[in-house]
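Hello again,

I reread your note about wanting to compare the complex against the isolated chains. To keep things tidy I'm splitting this into two emails, and this first one only covers the full assembly. Below are the input lines as submitted, including protein chains and any nucleic acid or small-molecule components. They are followed by the predicted structure of everything together. The single-chain runs will come separately.
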Amino acid sequence: MKKTSRFALALLGGLAMSGMTATASFADVESNDPIKLTLHDWTGQLLTTKIMGSVLQKAGYNIEYVQADYIAQFAGLKEGDLHVAMEIWETTGREAMDEAVATGKVDNLGETGMQAIEEWWYPSYMKEVCPGLPNWEALNDCAEAFATPETAPKGRYLGAPVTWGGFDDERVEALEMDFEVIHAGTDAALFAELESAYQRKAPVLLWVYSPHWAPAKFEGEWVEFPKYSADCYNDPSWGSNEDSAYDCGKPTGPIWKVAWSGLKDKWPGAHKAIEGFNLSNDEMSQMIIDVDLKGKDMDATVNQWVEANKGRWSDWVKN
Amino acid sequence: MIASVRNMIPAMGPIKGAKIFWILALLTSVFFYIEGKGLFPKWMFKIPRKSQLPIKKYFSSFMEWLVEDANFGFFTFKEMTRSFSWLLDVPLSFSTSLLSTGFLEGQGSQAVQILPPLSWIAVIAVVIAMGHYARDWKLAAFIGGCFLYLAVFGQWDSAMVTLASIVIAVPFGVIGGLFLAIAAYRSPTFEKCISPVLDLMQTIPVFAYLVPILFLFGFGPVAAMIATIIYAMPPMTRIAIMSLKGVPGELSDFGNMAGCTKRQLMWKVLVPSATSGLMVGVNQVIMLSLNMVIIASMIGAGGLGYDVLSSLRRLDIGGGLEAGVGIVVLAIALDRLSQAFATRPDPIHSDIPQTLIRRHPWTVTVTIIAIVTLVLGLVIPPIQSYPGVMELGVGTSLAEFVKWININYFDTLEGYKTFVLVYFMVPVKLVLLKMPWAWTILLLSVAAWQLGGVRLLALTLSLCLFILATGMWEKAMITVYLCGVSVIIACVFGIPIGIVAAENQRFGRIAQVMIDTLQTLPSFVYLIPVVMLFRVGDFSALVAVVLYAIAPAVRYATHGIQQIPPALIEAGVTSGCTKRQLLFKIKLPLALPEILLGLNQTIMLALSMLVITALVGTRDLGQEVYIALTKADTGRGLVAGLSIAFIAIIADRMIAAGSKKAKQRLGLG
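Full-complex prediction:
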């Protein structure tokens, strides 16, 4: 709480100073009501949102950050209790987003520029056990190296929470792989297992996504499956298995921005600025590494980006 | 569950026919198990989708109607709930301003602080004052120490956000619970109506009704607070009904004779005489509210719960533990304080006129401290908020410790785990999944009939049929398996610990602290290390459930042994019992009704924990609730939530009936 305290200053007789901070000049914006941006619990999303927030603030808008659950927030976005959500991943939030957009109460404001990568992943030391990696056929030949007592002789693959989709059970079936898919319940559980295995240099094969700190902290690679195409998922005859879809890797997908549909009428300028927002995977990964692994302060990282990229964001907020 | 019921039956009474039935039933079950699924058509294990009742859809469309169309002529249902949440927001934002953000003018980033929040010194002064007022200096020092801990370990800001919502949620829960209880006390019909509602409020997992609450009450701390109140109110209501009924008849007769009106009788005679019982309810409300902080933080309550979630997301085990311990410390401080208020001796009245300072020494002192620190805090910031450089942390050492265990003992742990899985968990799961539903329901019904007669039979049968008809049978069986296995293990460890704790005071005190911590420490904190050591799967879920649900098993066993009349033990000693005989022939049988109650509570806690263990990837009803939440599917969540509640209710009623029978047999009332 670094804000100047008006009443308290008055107590000390410092009245003259007080008015200044309260009425700091704001640019002409459509409404002085706060725009509510949602914060979730992963670093990348906090960074994206705070960058957007700082930019809107520089443009004179009044903003407010609200803690919200990733999926539960749609209830708030539909009702106008919340206004902007900066990261809805194609891969994990698509269903909830489509449902919300279909009601007409939520708008999709386009891509953030970042691409979500998701695929089977293994730590580098597994290459010594299984030299043919990252090829998926080679992986299948050493499935036993990834086995645990519960899954033996099949290998164990730790998939994402059921709700994320991803068609891993279908993929294993279609590519006739000797793996058993175990679903983690949350990504925290997913990475807890990775951390544990990495500490012991034990075999592990799991779903990893990017942008995230894990691929930066742990050395490893993504498995190379036959390249994804829309046909692969829709047309069984595509690919090595003639009778089955999903015989390929996962698609990469954009990360979307969404907003309450009232936003464009109440704050047209902010609406435009959010539509303009754009960041690349590399920028984001670097910031995540700074914050999560190097322990840099979140707000300092955001400010640094905002200072360094004035040219870019002033384009977003130009009327 | 079935297994435990089956074991109980022979002890129940010398009914010969029943014994023969259960022996035959056991043989038939073994036969089904060995023959497997081949004997029956598929629909005996899973009701095909097209013949399931579409109850999910009914719930969803009812909800839609409620949010979109329902109205009372002048205003819609949603407008009503929204204005209700606006009303709740007034006290909540006041307490948040007072403790955390300061009083603001304007909104969002343009807000300007016109008055800072209470400084940390002032808050500590307030709690010390309350401690001294409620009991003595010792308690004052203890509670002051707890809050100082929060400041020193850098949890202050978050703890104040959490505290701000607790101090508002608790009075609402308490007053609401008390009014329901009074209504139930006055009208037995109302009591009958409300009893099943309370059951549902307590047993339906919060995740199941989170989405409707968000729609109706808006997004943010108020919705979180409403969910907290719903969850925390039932025990208050129950305990209040009990303690009002427990007021001696002479007292209310006296009130009537003195010419009290109905209202005077309630507020001047009954409620004051029931105070100590009511305070137990208050204590429960505080504890349950603190249990909710994690879930509340998912819908915008912030505070310590949010810190726990976000540190675990970064796999920062130390950070998660620090915030989690912050919650425990807050819980312990509030718990001790409320208990002290419950047992506070009545103040001695004196008629000598006194000055304001003499009459309200604490109020005056605290006000002065608050004002002085407010003014000084403007010049010297550390007085307003605890200086960051003086904060301590234990963060990384814990992560190192888990790493050390992981590297050195993983294989040993894996060995134990495989053993338990192969010889215990998997067989139980298979037994439950291989029985056709008709057979399982038949066994349950017979058990219900033997324990509680026709009414219990009807209840059990209809609840089972609901689970079956909504297509939840298979998931319900997995739930019963996970919950049953955990309860058995919790009892195997918990009851002996409880017995030893009752016999040995020092051990008892240690056990008490341990179970208090396990119950208030958010399970998320240990879920992650558990996953690191045991991988994702049923076993990790089992460990987490056992850790959480062991508390009542210990507590009730201790209590059961301690409440045995000393004369009976004396009688055993004089008739020459050995220590062993004393335990097995006298103490255990007499403590059995209490132990059964403990079993009941253990089952309830285990079921409530299953929703949390869905986060490590189980495949039961808890997961179903969680999936429904992430898809914002109201109907699906409610149906799965109700199924969990029904399992809980069946177990509860059967055990209650069993415990009643045991009591009758022992002549205990």
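For quick reference: Chain B is about 80% helix and 0% strand.

B.
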